[in-house]
Amino acid sequence: MFSLCLSSVPKSFGQAETVKVLSYSWYVDFIGYFGAVGEVQNTGSATIDKVCLSVVAYAPDGTPQGQSYTRVCVTHLVPQQKAPFYMEFPEYTSWMYLGIDRVDFKVIQGNATTS
Questions:
Q1: Mean pLDDT, residues 40-62
Q2: pLDDT top residue among 12 and 77
Q3: What are the phi and psi torsion angles at 39 (to 5°)?
Q4: Lowest-confidence region among 36-45, 79-88, 95-104
């Protein structure tokens, strides 16, 4: 999934602003990987195709500690539909010891479609 989202990062997407992250939580698994799960919603009036998110994790001092990408778990997000997402940071790095204070999500892809 990571490579699919990275290939589309530099593009401009007209409907991404209508996709909102409703809720999320994060965790550190038993191996030490950092993960995030949550739910998005299409708040617009058009069907959105292939929603992709980026997330940046921050240490308590405000320093960015890692970034990851994922796609929402549905291909087409119809108006008002909600869908889950899951992402992980596969690197085991020093930020695991610093702790995570917050994560910031950004919708980086979400095109209107007639499909």
A1: 90
A2: 77
A3: -140, 140
A4: 95-104
> Contact 34/6 with Cβ under 8 angstroms?
no
Q: Where are the domains of the chain?
A: 2-113
SS (H, E, C) 37-106: EEEEEECCCCEEEEEEEEEEEECCCCCEEEEEEEECCCCEECCCCEEEEEEEECCCCCHHHHCCCEEEEE
pTM: 0.76
2-113: in CATH 3.40.50.150? no
C-alpha closest to that of 66 among 35, 41, 112, 40 = 35
Torsion angles phi and psi, residue 2, rounded to 5: -55, -50
Does an H or E element contain 20, and which? strand 19-28
Burial track 34-57 (b if 16+ CB lie within 10 A, e otherwise): bebebebbbebebbbbbbbbbbeb
